[in-house]
Amino acid sequence: MSGFLRGTGVALATPFNEDGSIDYNGVTSLVNFCIDGNIEYLVVLGTTAESVTLSKDEKKKLVDHILKVNDKRLPVVLGIGGNNTAAVLAEIKETDLSDFTAILSVVPMYNRPNQEGIYQHYKAVNDASPIPVLLYNVPSRTGTNMTAETTLRLAQLDKIVGVKEAVGDFTQVLKIIKDKPDDFLVISGDDALALPAVAAGGDGVISVVGQGFPEEFSEMIRFGLSGETEKAFKILYTLLPVLDYAFEEGNPAGIKNILKVKSICEDYVRLPLVSVSSDLAKKIKTFIE
User: Does the annotation mark 136 as catalytic?
Assistant: First the structure.
């Protein structure tokens, strides 16, 4: 199984029109831009997609449209997660997963389970899923950290093939890399730490900024994976300012402004999110130009 999601995946944003409806032309442009930029796979309905503010019907139409545009050119990972285990299992059961390579499922947020609760949640997901499962640890959003020990325990289950790790604590990432099974993927969920993680033995990134700079980002990670660290870090240092700008006022407002400057789509977001300030928009425009 190892190697099937190595490299750069992008967590696709959802372009909107001014009235808040989904901008399907923008979706088409974004998917093609990423594929033309040589990324390795697409991630749909993640955090960056503003999936929590999409209705069930919108999610279905959006996913169908992305699959149609992709036309089997790249593997696609589908976000299915939540803090109600029964609802997550029902969604897995109700969804046709034949076009997807894996599910990306986030640590339950808000009800803040302990480590045993996290383990049992994912064990239920593992048992219900007909396809591979990637864990997703992002304590800044969920309020709970899934420890290295819990991740390594889950790595023993048959469907759980990897983790998207966005803990911000590099020691935790190293602990997972050190003790993981050979075919277990450690994928960075932090754009700035993706290359250091790859250099330490990780498998790549699910990136936000990568959809704004697909060519540069995927080349950087490929250099990192092939041990050409000097070339890889040269690209990282060039991108460093925009990695800050993309998250300065929250995600996906930052990446959407980057995509607007690059004429891929507009930068509308749905409340409670708001677009970036004019100051940040100026910094992004200056960087790109």
Answer: yes
